[in-house]
Amino acid sequence: MKKIRRILALVLALIALASFAACGSKDVLAGKWKGELGADGTVTWEFDGKGKCKMQNEFTTQSGEYSINGNEVTITLELWDEPNVYTFSVDGDKLTMDDTDPLGLSGTYAKQ
Fold first, then answer.
1. How far apart are CA 71 and CA 48, in angstroms?
2. pLDDT tens column, 17-69
3. CB of 79 within 8 A of CB of 70?
4. If you ran DSSP here, which 8-state letter would residue 49 be given?
5. E strand or H helix at 38
6. What gap in Å lies between CA 74 and CA 78, rounded to an integer?
7. pTM value?
8. Which residues are paired to 34 by β-bridges?
9. What is the pLDDT of residues 3-23, one digit of tens each?
10. Under DSSP, is residue 92 helix (H, G, I), strand (E, B) or coil?
């Protein structure tokens, strides 16, 4: 009976460990990304992997917050009146961000 309890306890511990590992999804945006975006020149995004971000271009540097939901990232920067939602994809060291807002920040960025 003790052997069965030990095996059952081990199995339950392994299931709990697997559950915790599945919950920890990696933030694919974490890091620094740079892109050449026409009129906005060089735009750099920095995502800290914990919900904070910074955007810098030739005109301004702004801090803000972001959250990821599937293939969408919602970004709020300090000078923006409201959040902006981007559809994004990451392919290796290339980030593509698209939105319908005319801010000019849609484009392709390279991981730095």
1. 18
2. 444 444 455 899 999 999 998 877 899 999 999 999 999 998 899 999 999 99
3. no
4. S
5. none
6. 13
7. 0.74
8. 44, 110
9. 776 655 544 444 554 444 444
10. coil
